[in-house]
Amino acid sequence: MVTAVTSFGRSGLSDWLVQRVSGVILLAYFIFIACNVINGVDYVSWKALYAQTWVKVFSLMAILSLAAHAWIGMWAVFTDYLTERLMGSTGNFLRVTLQLLVLVTIFIYVVWGVQILWGY
Fold first, then answer.
1. CA distance 47 to 28
2. What would the pLDDT profile of 4-58 be if each residue is shown by its tens digit?
3. In which residues is a ubiquinone bound (predicted)?
4. Is 109 annotated as a binding residue?
């Protein structure tokens, strides 16, 4: 039996919903960035754009969405493909090690992103 580690006691439906909402936020952010790049952006206008609070909040939402999306997605991949049946006795150890590595990487990404955006 597989337990829902990502949901912290919630159902798989909430994980599915977080995955979809985070995907929509990431798509909107990608379109926003692509439109700015296509319209031609120089350093001064880019800096002025990111000086606005709403852009910082939108970027923070994208960072947190990417973190949630990646965590749920990687958890699903690891639990589906790194099983004891497939990997033998080292399957659980490898899966837990990779999950911890992904979790630490995501944490560093979020902290770094917040520091860059908000200057902390």
1. 20
2. 555 455 578 888 899 999 999 999 999 999 999 999 888 999 999 999 999 999 9
3. 81
4. no
Q: What is the pTM of this model?
A: 0.78
Question: Distance between CA atoms of 89 and 9, rounded to whole angstroms?
Answer: 27
Q: CATH topology for 12-118? A: 3 helical TM bundles of succinate and fumarate reductases (1.20.1300)
Provide CB contacts within 8 A for 106, sequence distance 6+. 67, 70, 71
pLDDT for the residue numbered 5:
53
The domain spans of the chain are: 12-118
Calculate the dihedral angle through the C-alpha atoms of 23, 27, 28, 34, rounding to the nearest 10 degrees.
Answer: 160
Token look-up 């899966």 returns 95
Q: How many CB atoms lie within 10 A of CB 27?
A: 12
Q: Is 69 helix (H, G, I), strand (E, B) or coil?
A: helix
What element of type H or E holds 29? helix 12-38
Task: Please give the Cα distance from 117 to 96 (Å, whole number).
Answer: 31
How far separated are the first and last CA of the chain, in Å rounded?
43
